[in-house]
Design brief:
- The chain is mainly beta.
- It has a single domain, classed as Jelly Rolls (Sandwich).
- Strands 1, 2, 4, 5, 6 and 7 form a 6-stranded antiparallel β-sheet that branches.
- A hairpin with a 2-residue loop joins strand 4 and strand 5.
- The chain is globular.
């Protein structure tokens, strides 16, 4: 393995499409770039669509950075509106999920990698 890698995000598989999810896209390029201690994702949300589940972690603190657009993030029982360039820091135990606004939303998520510590929460927006 080289001391660096260069990868184009468009060449990373869309995990959402691969699972038949229709909220937008979710790409996790960690393996493609060979990152060992950093986890990150690129998430796009279609206008008015939300991720079909929430999730939380045992150890992984995450940072969400809104690149473009607007939308909302549900944190436990509270929904917060987001706009371009908002930054959200999340402690591991906070259950979270994203929803696209009128023009959709593009988000980068990153933090230290803690493999296998994520827990999905089905029906999170329905609660």
């Amino acid at each position: 393995m080289s001391d660096y890698t260069i990868t184009n995000l468009d060449e990373v598989a869309d995990s959402a499409a691969g699972r038949g999810l229709e909220f937008g896209s979710a790409r996790f390029p960690r393996e493609a770039v060979g990152a060992e201690r950093t986890g990150f994702a690129h998430v796009t949300l279609l206008p008015g669509r939300h991720q079909p589940f929430g999730h939380r972690h045992k150890e992984a603190e995450e940072i969400y950075f809104v690149i473009a657009g607007s939308g909302a993030i549900k944190l436990d029982d509270v929904v917060h509106e987001l706009r371009a360039h908002d930054i959200v820091r999340l402690a591991p135990s906070v259950t979270r999920s994203l929803r696209g606004g009128p023009d959709g939303m593009e988000v980068i998520v990153f933090g230290a990698r803690h493999g296998g510590d994520g827990e999905l929460v089905d029906g999170f927006w329905d609660e």
